[in-house]
Structure formats: structure tokens, C-alpha cells
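Record 1 of the preview.
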Amino acid sequence: MTTPVVEARQDHRPGSGRERGRGAGVRGLLFAVTALVAGATGVAGTLLYQRAHAPDTSAVDAQAAEIAEDLRGELNAGFHSGGQPYGGQFTQGTVVSHVEAHGGVLLSADTERNQTVGVVHTAEVMLGLVPPATEAVTPRAYPVRCYRYTFGIGTHSVKQSGMPCPATRTDGRPGSLVAQLGVLLAQQPTGPFAYRRMTTAGYAHTPRGAEEFLKEERLIADGDRVSAVSGKAGGDGVYALALRINDACHYLRMDPSSTASRLVPLWIAPADEQDPCDAQQAATAATLYGVNPAEQG
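->
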């Protein structure tokens, strides 16, 4: 079965000034765990074991509910929206930061236009990879589970539901999906301010300017490896980049707007977009999820 990784994590939610607390020991533990899982029967076998032993899912279900509340908070009515539903100035990076803060990974993200309700965003996540930082839980009390979130504009639009975890890796390669995602967690940047809301103003919208931003703003540490950087200009002065940090695909959104400081500029790409890792994917992911109706006239 899947052995969860217990971390002595510090608070690293968006906006927190505290360090992430992910050192070499945690990285080594993550790799050890994922190697152990990879040698097992994979996600399907793990889930069969968990069902046979009737695990207590309350801890991971509680974290899933917290993510839903985080999204509702992002979509809350804005001060200047006249009390109308506020679409929220946030991107895929904000969603990833909430999921990562609750010990999970974004499996996939999608956006569709519904004729009845307008734009609908979908995020599928796997939780249970890292237990809550505030308590120690046993493996049976913290199983791997997957959830689907849909949302549009306004807090009322956020819907959460359980879903079967995929039985295969997102990249189509043989092996365990849990192991794949565990490796992604181990490849995260080790800078103290990774996945934090901040501005990118003052840095050139080029691959070189992006690397300077990552280093000088301490989103990556000296030991983190950055490679395969490619960028694409977007609307309203936005410049989106796809890059690999420690071999994991990340997206970086550079925006000169004064309000962009409320956004998370760097985030790990969804699992199903890890390969290929290109600038067009980054540009799509960097699009704002919502709008303020009051600003649209």
C-alpha cells in the first residue's frame, strides 16, 4: 500500500512569509517512498488494498474540503464589484498552490464554455501524498484519494466531488501514478518563497530575465537546476514561460501590472502536461480564471 510522506512542514500557503521547510532529508524521504510504491502493484493495487481494509478517509477528505473553501475565497465578491459575484484575479498557479499546500498534486486542468452557465474550469487532483502538517496520521487514516473541482464565477460556482484515481501514469509510461507524483513533489523548487504571491515587475520578459527573477526573489535555491526555458508573449503585457526546475515542468507568469502582485507567478505544471513542456501550454495556463463584472462595464 502507499506509505504517506510525513513532513515537518512550515506554513507555505500563498502569501505566507515562512519558509517551505523542504530540505534534503524530506527530498530523500520522498524518493524512498516513491521507489517503494513503484515496486508495488501500482495505483489500482493500492486502492484495492485500501478498500479491503476500510481506511478512514476523514483526514484527506477534510483537506479536499479545505481546497474547495480556498477556491470559494478566491471567488468571493470583490470590494469594487458592487456585491456582484467576483471572478477572482487568479490563475492555474493559485489552484496549484492551494493543492500543494494540502499535500496533493494537480492531475489535470481544463476550461470549457457552457452555453448555460458560461465558462467552467475543471481541476482534478490527487491528495494523500503528504499528510497534514499539523498532525501525525497512520497510513490507513490517510489514503490516496482523487477529487474533481469545477468552478466558474462566484463562490456558489465551486463544486467538489470524489473521482476514481487514474490507474495509469499520466505520461503513459509503465509504473505507478503515485510514484510519478511523488517524484514531482520531490522535484519542487527549494527556494523559501516558491509558490508565493509576488510581483514580477522590474524583470525583463525574456528567458534570462526569468532566471534572474527566480534567483533574486529566492523562488529557487542554489541547488535547484533550471533548464529548457522557453517563453511566449501574451495579451496585456503578460509573458509566459515553460521551464524545467529539477527536471519537473513549471510555468512562470511575468506581468507588469500593479495588481499582478496578488498572483502566484511560478507553479508546477499539471501532471498530464509534464511532457511536453512548452510555452503555449504555459500561456494557456497563465490566463486569468475570472473577471470582475464591475470592471467590464
